[in-house]
Design goal:
Number of strands of chain A: 8
Radius of gyration of chain B: 29 Å
Radius of gyration of chain A: 15 Å
Largest interface: A-B, 29 and 35 residues
CATH architecture of chain B: 3-Layer(aba) Sandwich
CATH superfamily of chain B: ATP synthase, F1 complex, gamma subunit
Strand order of the largest sheet of chain B: 3-2-1-4-5
Mean pLDDT of chain A: 89
Helix content of chain A: 25-40%
CATH topology of the largest domain in chain A: ATP Synthase, domain 1
Strand content of chain A: over 45%
Low-confidence stretches of chain B: 196-204, 207-212
CATH superfamily of the largest domain in chain A: F0F1 ATP synthase delta/epsilon subunit, N-terminal
Order of helices and strands of chain B: HEHEHEHEEHEH
Strand content of chain B: 5-15%
Largest sheet of chain A: 8 strands, mixed
CATH class of the largest domain in chain A: Mainly Beta
Number of domains of chain B: 1
Number of helices of chain A: 2
Oligomer: heterodimer
Shape of chain B: elongated
Shape of chain A: globular
Order of helices and strands of chain A: EEEEEEEEHH
Mean pLDDT of chain B: 89
CATH architecture of the largest domain in chain A: Sandwich
Low-confidence stretches of chain A: none
């Protein structure tokens, strides 16, 4: 029986409402797995793959960073963008990388934004490569 | 026949206009419903962010973030005015620009330097006419603003504010309260005041509603997460401004087109009455001419 309730919310709409046995969150510093009865935490997410398994079937999404809240077997993911991993193509990831590398980097703030965009494009490429 | 043809032509033209305005009213009603639904979805996200902020600030205590800091000396202001691309929406564009112009005049008089960003062709045309120089203009925000586009704009504003090029960001838009209440407002979006305020309000609410408060672990840490949450809160607030503007525009267009349809209906009634009166007057004239003619022949 799927024990964990998942809810992925973006500013435009609630993308996902499902239940799962096991959830993997793309944290800012790596992946974190959440099973049933996990202790409560709030975490910062990085761009990467969001995976969850229900009765042996694994579903994958690309999450563009954000925040995750886990409490009482409910996982809530707040993100700017969430797409099904199957819909992400390697060409889209390459385009994102090209755009990111062309960003201006004149001061430290712009450099930080550019690095973030490049990291995001790399994460997209990784997720698309596993398709 | 005195002008009967022209009256018929006029009536036909008004009938066609009424069909168009009626259709526009129906389309605006449908678009309003969709825009309202989008605003409601964004509300769910905003509430979650506020809830997170409340939980975090309970654990992190006072947080200082460059986006929250009010600057004592305001050397440069960025004003964003959100108007519609199309007209036929009643007093919508006019009321927003009437809210924006005094603000701009006040900035000019105070000698404060400002950048003007305008969204919507109506606003762009107005400021061109008023000869107020526009720094950036956007026409891609229609009735379905995408978070990606607003994200790009918000990131730019954050960079400008943090790097010190801009000391204050003000947004002028039509705020949506209910379907019957919208009004133009000039809101100061940066420095952000209410992540902390909302947090304390929501914290009080959470304490009273949920008896047990959850003991969270924070990755990496409550203060760091709160530091990342503040820009996200700002982006959502800017997105909400665009959503509100879109909903208000559709309501204004619906009201204006409804009034136009009713006016057209009244005009048609008037022209019909005039047509019938003219027709009867012509018949009476013909008959009286005939009788006068036959009397003369007697």
């Amino acid at each position: 029986m799927a024990a964990i309730k998942i809810s992925v919310v973006t500013p435009e709409k609630a993308v996902l409402d499902a239940t799962a046995d096991f959830v993997v969150l793309p944290m800012f510093d790596g992946e974190r797995g959440v099973g049933a009865g996990h202790s409560a935490f709030v975490g910062q997410l990085g761009p990467g793959e969001f995976r969850f398994t229900t009765a042996g079937v694994t579903s994958r999404y690309f999450i563009d960073g954000g925040f995750a809240q886990v409490r009482t077997n409910t996982v809530t993911v707040l993100t700017a963008k969430a797409v099904k991993a199957g819909e992400l193509t390697a060409t889209a990831a390459e385009e994102a990388r090209a755009v990111a590398e062309k960003l201006p980097a004149t001061n430290s703030v712009e450099q930080a934004s550019r690095q973030k965009a490049i990291a995001r494009a790399s994460a997209m490429a990784r997720v698309a490569a596993k398709n | 026949m005195a002008n009967l043809r022209s009256l018929v032509r006029r009536r036909k033209a008004i009938r066609n206009i009424r069909k168009i305005t009626k259709t526009m009213e129906l389309i605006a009603t449908a678009r309003f419903k969709k825009a309202f639904d989008r605003a409601t979805e964004a509300d769910a996200y905003t509430r979650k962010i506020a809830e997170l902020a409340a939980d975090l600030s309970k654990n992190a205590g006072e947080v200082s973030h460059p986006l929250l800091a009010a600057r004592p000396v305001v050397k440069k202001v960025l004003v964003l005015v959100i108007t519609a691309n199309r007209g036929l929406c009643g007093g919508y564009n006019g009321s927003i620009l009437r809210e924006a112009m005094p603000k701009i005049r006040a900035l000019r008089e105070a000698g404060t330097d400002f950048d003007l960003d305008v969204s919507g062709k109506r606003g762009i045309a107005y400021f061109k006419f008023q000869q107020v120089p526009t720094t950036n203009s956007y026409t891609n925000f229609e009735d379905k603003p995408k978070f990606e586009d607003v994200d790009a704009l918000a990131s730019r504003y954050i960079d400008l504010f943090v790097s010190g090029q801009v000391d204050q960001v003000i947004v002028v838009y039509q705020k949506f309260i209910t379907a019957a209440k919208q009004y133009p407002i000039a809101e100061t979006l940066l420095p952000l005041s209410s992540v902390a305020v909302e947090a304390t309000k929501k914290a009080a609410a959470v304490e009273t509603t949920a008896g047990t408060s959850v003991g969270y672990e924070f990755f990496p840490g409550a203060a760091e997460i709160l530091g990342e949450l503040v820009p996200v809160a700002f982006k959502v607030r800017l997105f909400k401004a665009f959503l509100d503007a879109a909903v208000s525009e559709q309501i204004a267009r619906r009201v204006a087109m409804k009034a136009a349809t009713e006016n057209a209906g009244d005009l048609i009634k008037g022209v019909t009455r005039l047509y019938n009166r003219t027709r009867q007057a012509n018949i009476t004239k013909e008959i009286s001419e005939l009788i006068a003619g036959s009397e003369a022949l007697k």
